Amino acid sequence: MMKKLICLLPLLIFIAGCVKTNIDQPEPLVPYGTFAGKFTRTYIDPATSAKTTVTANIQLVMSDTGFILTSDADAVHANGMGDYLGNETTIEFKDSNNPTTGPPPTKSYLNGVFNYAYDGYNFRIFKVSGDDTYDYLFTKK
């Protein structure tokens, strides 16, 4: 009996090596839908050198054709729309309303590369640029 088991051992090892061992990973969650939340920007005011924080309530609609953002405080965050492209950890927004010439805008636009986290309900988009931090906290509607 022991000789039969020893003879079968190489066959068992071969079969075990042929078994699929990598587990299919779920697709990353795509942040599609309507989200409502708060935008917060913290920056150093160039006129006073003081740390300043501004906020706005915003709504973001994301679909496979692009995004639309509306803000309740246009002086803080501009309404916008455009395209986006993301992977598991970063997302790049291209707001078609973002000015490309002239002085830097005084209000914020959802434009550029951001880190993000999404669990199917809570959606956070954030980035740090110099002394500025941009933080969007949403929940899915």
TrEMBL record:
Keywords: Signal. Residues 1-21 form the signal peptide. This is DUF306 domain-containing protein. It comes from Mucilaginibacter calamicampi.
